[in-house]
Specification:
Layout: E1 2-3, E2 12-18, H1 23-31, E3 39-44, E4 49-53, E5 56-60, H2 62-66, E6 68-70
Length: 71
């Protein structure tokens, strides 16, 4: 299992788990549709990580990208 920060641009994966250490971050991610079982695509890595979940594109920092585990 890897995290979003380890993905290559254009790579697609399925969210397997979220790092539960920071509950505020988990709640925000879930409110944006980033939930276990969703498909995610990494659109860009720099200057921030941009992921696509469904029809939504979201910009996140490396700490958050590292807390989304995919397969």
């Amino acid at each position: 299992m890897m995290n979003v920060a380890d993905m290559k641009t254009g790579q697609k994966a399925t969210i397997m788990a979220l790092d539960m250490n920071n509950q505020d971050t988990v709640r925000k991610l879930m409110a944006l549709g980033i939930v276990v079982g969703s498909d995610v695509e990494l659109m860009q890595r720099f200057p921030s990580y941009v992921i696509k979940v469904g029809y939504t594109q979201i910009a996140i920092d490396k700490d958050i990208a590292s807390s989304i585990f995919v397969n």
